[in-house]
Amino acid sequence: MRLNLWLLAVCLLSLTRITAGSILGAAVNIELLDQDRSQQVRAHYSLVSSLPCPVLDELCNEVNCIDQLSSSPVKGVLPSPGWCLRQWQKNIPQNHTSQLRSDGAVSLYSRADLSVRSDTNGINQPPYVSLPPPVRLQAGCPQEIPVNVMDLDGDEIRCRYEKTGLGEFMQLNEETCTLLYEGGAYLGQYSIQIMVEDFPSSVKNQIHNEAKPFSTVSVYLLITVESGSSCSAVPEFIGESPAGGVVIHVLPFEEVHVNITVDSSVSEIAVIGPPGLFISPMETGMNSQSSVTLSWVRGPNQFAHLLSVCFAANTQSLQSHIRCMWLKQTQTDPLPPGTELKCKERELQMSLVLPTSFLENLHLSDLQLNDPACPVFYNTTHVTTTFSLTGCGTKRMHLGSELLYTNTLRSINPNSTISRVATLILPLACRIPGQQAKGPTFKISVPEEVETFGAVSFWIEFHLPGEGPLAAETRLPRMRSSQPVRAAREIRATGRMDMLDLHVFSNCSLDRAELMVGRCVESETEDFVNTRPLLSHGCSAGNGTLEILTSTSTVRIYRLYLGSLGIMGDTMYVECLVQLCVTTKQSQRCPDPCTETTDKTIVNSILTHNYTVRSGPVPLIKATETSTTTAKPTPTAKPVAQPSTSQVTTASASHALDRGAFWVVAVSLAVLLLQLMENFVERFIAD
């Protein structure tokens, strides 16, 4: 008779609210290193923190912590004030407890068994536990929360609470690693810590305390219980959304695409995944369905062999059931001596020479590339093939700053899907560094900049809020940030401008072309000896700059709050770094620099060079309403990345007094008339 392993869980620590830097979730997974290493265990840490996103030194108090941040952190919105994901690794002893943050608010324990198992004649592989997005529950509404685990040895996995507290909050099924919330508990946050352990499969029906686990990893969750009017139906995943627990095998340099679709309109689809995971902006389709696309390229890495991707759909009051999938990095055998893979850059070709001694018991006639029509030659000693980087099924993608061309040599038995003959799957890849791909010695198979975008120019204009060519969009602006927006008209006694809208334009007429603004700086002098940041990577550099969302993709507008920026002079000069981007697929958007950096870009896109555009003098005294400056690159302008960058020609122009300026003068006259009338009345009464 199977024992009922449902245990009453314990209410752990109840918090009043989430504060800056709160740990919303954390997990540790461990793997064994080569036996000749002094430290035989490598730990992989994942941590979800409330915003603002902490730096690694604030989380890892130990030495030799290696940040796995390949680009900007993955971020989410709910629960407020939002969260970010940080990941790092560290070599640790066999038994180890890591204190997270300087105050040791959360500790993660792990233990590895380095002895040889009698049943497998190998060293045990510890279990893996996934870290989900921040868990949100609706008070009074029962819900199951799976703790997603996996073991590569096929061992029995059990979960238990780290320690017992007081009060009932949840139940934990130790056998299925499932949390059951029955609807109780006050509103607030509750922290729980679960130990995940693997046992020999022979103990499946034994009492937990009678068996000794091989190894242990742990996961920490801060669960938020929120108020709700009723137990409404939560958002559901539909369509091609991966099922929970699915495993995707990933070869070296292979790209994984996953589509996630929700049956209703949601605030966000929160995703937790490995470093380098690209998450597309959420789109709303037919019947208010929401969807995102995930992409990940397996490049050279020291990540765990098994990587989890967990996702949940959030509304302001509800969260869907959490799903997790696994990416298993398939281990490959080393290639034999005599193997040659060459990337012929000038010819745009890749060539392979492979000794047949490596291909024993394999029908060489079954070998083919992604495109079976491309020939593969063989004799008694070698297999050879040469194919185009733009054909034969070769795929092109981005891996960080590199351009990656991939193909696969594999054996295909056309007569039967089941065969005892050996099979071969050999990934082939050419990696072109970013600076080399842009250089004159290597021509990638994409159109030239002028052929794609035309002869483009860029310029800068400044307007008061509610004025200028896009006055309709700046009068009642939609801001990227949720911060409160001050009134469009604000007059200060000093006569200084309080707000000014920075407009960045391009004349590009290409459909779907998007203007990308990298950074903008301000200087009180024309030589830009001393500068102050206005934008960094296209995002606000502080509280003094907010982006105004526009309906025109080749225009960017930023509202400058001059007082918050600390700009005290009467005149300023502005310099911005700009470029144009267009994707090769209509369904994709260029990466948003405020959420994902180009290091995470998996979409195929074409970019212009970076151009520097400067303004002329911009007056900050309200003598006139608007000062417009333009800057267009000359025909000989060069990308700023090149060491011999020539300065872009700058022109400036002052506009005549317009209706807005007359409005300012009228107000001043009205104030003067009121003062004269008051003086006259006072004298009349006195007389």
Automatic annotation (TrEMBL):
It comes from the Eukaryota. Residues 1-21 form the signal peptide. InterPro entries: ZP-N, ZP_dom. Keywords: Disulfide bond, Signal. Residues 625-645 are annotated as: Disordered. Residues 625-639 have a biased composition (Low complexity). Residues 342-597 form the ZP domain. Pfam families: ZP-N. This is ZP domain-containing protein. It comes from Culter alburnus (Topmouth culter).
